[in-house]
């Protein structure tokens, strides 16, 4: 029997807002979008501005596109690219979007909201692909294709957010972004990430930036974590590979290179996510 593998590709790795410019050429300036290809199934995690280049790449193939799009939460940086996702404008394509409702807003209305007049000229229902929106919550486990499972758990983030674990055969990866650590390991993330082949972790800050030592103001309560906390979680949960993600807007290529270098001395199998890069688990 052929071994099941997943290919994880990074289309947008930056948090908060896009940061094009000469300091972000290597790791990229687009906001979150990651694809996981499991067999023939395409999973898209978040629809930040990184999804625009993904869309162009999918459109170039001129093949019918079917994908499951899981949104962690609807902060701008995670949905802003969707109105510019070319394949959603092409008939025959199918997109299944999943995410959480908030307060009295359904997930469907949250996704529609950013495209209502006069924010955007085209409403979501005018996009020609078959787009279906499904509300999900914390603690779910969905089988989206045979032997392909997605599990959810809630993050510590303002307004709420979901982390995802994808299991395909005996391979697994987790997308844990927009989450703030606690003084002890987050028990929910620990359980979700247990034994995963790879985790993609919110490493927006360094410990010094987070705690507000030296020249920084504290970022406690902002809803983001640090690369050092990513290492703690990866170790505690027995994770094989750690990928730093949701890089701060001010983080230069050189700083990310230095972070990677330092982090590897503590946890060997780690790297900072870079736009256009991919790994196979
Ligand atoms: Zn974010
Ligand atoms: Zn957020």
How does this structure look, described?
21% of the residues lie in helices and 27% in strands. The protein contains seven helices and 14 strands. The protein has helices at 50-60, 76-79, 107-113, 187-193, 207-211, 227-236, 253-266, and strands at residues 6-12, 33-38, 41-45, 66-70, 94-99, 130-135, 141-145, 148-154, 162-168, 171-176, 198-202, 241-245, 270-272, 278-280. The mean pLDDT is 96. One zinc ion binds at residues 73, 75, 157, 178.
Question: What are the salient characteristics of this protein?
Answer:
binds zinc ion, single chain, Metallo-beta-lactamase, Chain A, 14 strands, alpha/beta, 7 helices, 21% helix, 281 residues, 27% strand
Rg, alpha carbons: 18 Å
Mean pLDDT: 96
Strand proportion, as a percent range, falls in: 25-35%
CATH superfamily: Ribonuclease Z/Hydroxyacylglutathione hydrolase-like
- Give, in spatial order, the strands making up the sheet with the most strands: 6-5-4-3-2-1-14
Instruction: Supply the helix-strand structural class.
Output: alpha/beta
List the helices and strands and how they pair.
Blueprint: E1 6-12, E2 33-38, E3 41-45, H1 50-60, E4 66-70, H2 76-79, E5 94-99, H3 107-113, E6 130-135, E7 141-145, E8 148-154, E9 162-168, E10 171-176, H4 187-193, E11 198-202, H5 207-211, H6 227-236, E12 241-245, H7 253-266, E13 270-272, E14 278-280
The structure holds zinc ion (2 copies).
One zinc ion binds next to loops.
